[in-house]
Records
---
Amino acid sequence: MRKEKKMNRIKSKYLFWFTFLLLACISAPINAATAGEEPGKVDVQDIVFSHIRDAYTWHITEWNGKEISIPLPVLVKSEERGWDMFLSSHLHHGNVHHNYYVAGEGEHAGKVVEKNSRGEEVKPLDLSLTKNVVGLLISCGILLFIVLRTARWYKKHPNEAPGGFTGLMEMAVMYIHEGVVKEGIGKEYKPFSSYLLTVFFFILINNLIGIIPVFPGGANVTGNIAVTAVLAGCTFLAVNLFATKEYWKEIFWPNAPLFLKLPLPIMPFVEFFGILTKPFALMIRLFANIMAGHTIILALTCLIFITASMGVAINGTMTVVSVLFTVFMNCLELLVACLQAYIFTLLSANYIGLAKVRE
């Protein structure tokens, strides 16, 4: 009886949080679409890109026509006045603070700019804590907490089989370690094991947090090409800095007919170009999949408001279709979040393994 009651309580908790997140996933885009827009005048492009791109404030919701958001610190260095730091709330609604403002259009649209002594709009050195930067800090904090909590449990319970969350972490770690890292790299996997495990959980946590539309979720971290470029760059360094002589021999003098290498180095050029295309493919694959998922969810939600002026029948039908497809896409995004973390780690392990193969 006690076990049944305990299981029922656990099921109720999971059901509550699932329902809460589901409603949040649906209501957040709806809130954004209705905020400040008249019926029939929904700017879909602005709604979608305002959620995908980085920002100097962390928008939460709208309440009685007022924006509820968390202002983030802006840290900039002007060529003429030096360093300056203030909260982004000073720049709301096109306000100018200490000669700084957010550009509405042009080359620096959405970025903090200033007017120099010649009246030209220039971009200062910007080291601000934007939404994506804060999202990265949150995800790194969560990752450290999970890893240290798991390690602490093993320290306190030696020679014991873990259960619950620790058991789940052990299962995930062992699956990636044995099935991806060791299989992909081979005998010399140990120097790269920690890196690949860190990459997997880092991408996974950022993907999962990005699905949650309410704070501290909603930051489009892995949908930012700068973040995926750094991750791909780390794999590029891991592949090429620790590659064997045989790997570089196959790049500059591959096992191909001589006429493909002399007088024109066709095959060496193709092999060398492959060094750059591998990390580029990693960068684009992760960026495109995560960004596309967010874009589709927001676009589907906007269908409700686009059809608002087409009559009750059409709008009612499209509302049902929009909600159903939004729920489906959120569930699909959950799968994509795990799958993209796995694929990035798997391909990184395979690229490293190819560079470590000895003849």
---
Amino acid sequence: MDNYQFFKLSLAHKVAHVQLNRPEKLNAMNQAFWTEIKQIFAWVAETPEVRAVVISGEGKHFSAGIDLQMFAGFAAKFAKDAGRNARLLRTTIQDLQSSLSAVENCSKPVLAAIHGYCIGGAVDLIAACDMRYCAADAVFSIKEVDIGMAADVGTLQRLPHIIGDGVMRELAYTARDFDATEAKQIGLVNQVYPDHATLLEQVLVLAATIASKSPIAIEGTKEMIRYARDHSVADGLNYIATWNAAMLQADDLKQAMAAQMMKQQPEFKD
């Protein structure tokens, strides 16, 4: 857990706490971020003791977005051939996309705890999470048009399903800042907390509550929600019928029902 350049990782109460840990650079997302987040979520996937994940930022801010020095690194690889440059850029963008898709595709719930700046690529990151919470000092911006590009690692694809198409278009076209109050109003975050300490405390408690539930039930619920976003109601109903034909045979159902009758808290296997 200590072998990361960009992240700090810990595990307690079956909750993995993934902290962006480059505070001297406002947690700007350098090459290590994009490589290590895949490694971390591969570890999450293969570790039964992890049942939920919280992502937060060390220092004064969640993240100022993609480190612009990365763009200079990309430009240094360009050749004179426009076609080959396009192929290189497309492959690079798809690789970055896969880093954030690793967060979205995680079978375990991922909660974002946001304070201070959440700019550009950081919005792409939180859009890939299941739920978002923030401190009162949070400032958000879909910043990409201000540097002459369209956001390309998930914001424009995921946010319309979270905050609605029209609001997303306004924020993406203007690149304007918006605060915690507006983020709550448009549904980007579930709750606003007065400060960073309270935010972390409450989000970790919430994650621990989720982690206390049946991991079979939580995984199935997340899978069905994710599937329903991109499929018809009929497809979703068919999928859950097939899924539960297998998963309802787990011991978790009997344990949960017995605990409900006895008004006890069940203990589920990982």
---
Amino acid sequence: MATRTQAREAVVGMLYAYDVGNDSILLLARSILNEKKIKNKQQDFAFSLLQGALKHLNDIDRSITPHLREWDFSRLGGMERAMLRLGAYEILYTDTDVPVVINEAVELGKLYGGEDNAPAFINGVLDALSKAYKSSKAVGENKGEI
């Protein structure tokens, strides 16, 4: 049986595929998940993450960008961008505990990050995003918008 980590790994791959031009990835998602032996609740979890991330992609990208410091969003590696998007989606739009989200993203960064410092970079960006989001929630701003 697949784990949530494996489900997230599949979602990162599909977000990457979408980013490089596979606009029909949502239509193929269930088949891809089946091929990866991700079924039942984990498949529903993965599909929900993918669907939500794609639905809110523009807002997610706008939320990530201020926390990149000296990096331009378009210069990020495709896999790093996919990992940040998934992590940001979970922080902004789900009830998953932030430390779990960040840990999962960092572990994926260790596996798929294009550079040695990818895990630290992902950690820093998602941590800054979560702190900004937490403070915006404290002052009553809308969920998903910081």
---
Amino acid sequence: MSLVRSQTERGVATLTLDSPSNRNALSTALIEELLAALAAAEADGTVRVVVLSHTGPVFCSGADLKETAAAFGTGKPPINRLGEVLTAIWEGRKPVVARVAGPARAGGLGLIAAADLAVCTLDATFAFSEVRIGVIPAVISATVLPRLSPRAAAELFLTGDTFDGARAAEVGLVTAAVDAASLDAAVAGYVAALVRGAPGALAGTRQLLRRRKSDTFRDDVAELTELSVQYFGSSEGVEGILAFREKRDPNWIPDGA
């Protein structure tokens, strides 16, 4: 039975964690299927946006602790592969939107933070619960720390306290928190906006958001100017400007979008 379901429609690949019996825990099997699904979406030229969703009441409970306990002494717990998933989401060319309709813990928060945009319900709960079982949120800090202020990160990492969707939005873990009835519409709104962006420009903007600045302001501006000129002269830039002047959709927008 598949633990990650994939469906593509009108340029959107929806990857659904489908292991509700263990609260969509990050087992080795689920991680491998998620990696395969992400790779397939990345390779599919028709896919413009990836939505990460879930079945059951829990988005993701973190590492599969039953499998982790069984792996003591082998050096191969599921957490070994989590970094691969975070990297695939963080470094992919296509925007990722997380749809969070229920609680997330530990490693599940790493997935949410890796996504470009994340929408949760107001009553969803979150916790960096690692310290309470004697471990640290090491791997997920790669995606989580860029999202949180230092004070919020210190509080939430060190206390392990549970917080709700409104606080998650306040500290930057998610983009927006909405009531449950509005979740799908909010996700659809972000997706509709994203598919109107040019694929190459979206990929470039993702890199821009993650780039390291040059040593001096002057060098930084020079590098960014060169980058801007490159995109204005690209085939997408030429098409986008022409479409704007001709008051039509550019050729990269999927039919029906």
